[in-house]
Amino acid sequence: MNQDFVFDLKNLNEYRLHLQAGELASPHGQTRVTLYGSGDLEAEQLFGEKEEPEVRKPIRVKGRIENAEDLFRQLAKFDWQSKFPSRPGIPDEAIIIWTVEFQGKVIATLKMWLGEAEKDDRVDAVLKRLRDVIGDLSDNQIYI
User: Fold this and answer.
1) What are phi and psi of 141, to 5 degrees?
2) In Å, what is the CA distance from 38 to each residue of 67, 93, 99, 101, 117?
3) Dist. CA 63–CA 8, nearest whole Å
4) What are the Cα distances from residue 83, in Å, to 6, 26, 86, 125, 126?
5) Which of 63, 78, 86, 92 is the most exposed place for a label (fewest CB within 10 A)?
6) 22 - beta bridge partners?
7) What CA–CA distances, in Å, run from 51 to 72, 77, 94?
8) Mean pLDDT of all residues in the chain?
């Protein structure tokens, strides 16, 4: 369902961004973020079963991001048509999955390597903003 979408500012509260990065089984776990058009934000870092004796508990935070409409405008600039790169991943490189919903329906999905996200100025701008807000909310315990 990769398609470009037109951001409708009048219906900002009907949008939702979901971001998933990493894997449960990786040492850094999996980060999940939901940003609502209202600016409300939820983030969590989850950890799967590990061989180490200690059990890492999930980390969850909620907060708010100012000017969420700017992030959704930036999301509309992503190349939602691009295919997942066929190159092998760098060891421990996370895969990021971006999903945008409008009125509860998925309107765009994009899967990419973290390295690709950081090289694309359109994507990196959103990633940096989310990292800053989530880092502040979680005392740098949750990282994308």
Assistant:
1) -90, -25
2) 9, 31, 17, 13, 25
3) 23
4) 20, 24, 8, 20, 19
5) 86
6) 30
7) 40, 42, 20
8) 88
Cβ-contact 129, 48 below 8 angstroms:
no
Q: Closest Cα partner for 77 from 21, 11, 13, 123?
A: 123
Helix (H, G, I), strand (E, B) or coil at 75: helix
What pLDDT digit, counting tens, does each position of 60-71 carry?
Answer: 999 999 999 999
Can you name the CATH fold of 9-138?
Mago nashi protein (3.30.1560)
Q: pLDDT tens digits for 28-84?
A: 889 999 999 999 999 999 987 655 546 678 899 999 999 999 999 998 889 888 888
Q: What is the CA radius of gyration of the chain?
A: 15
Token code pair at residue 90: 């760098």
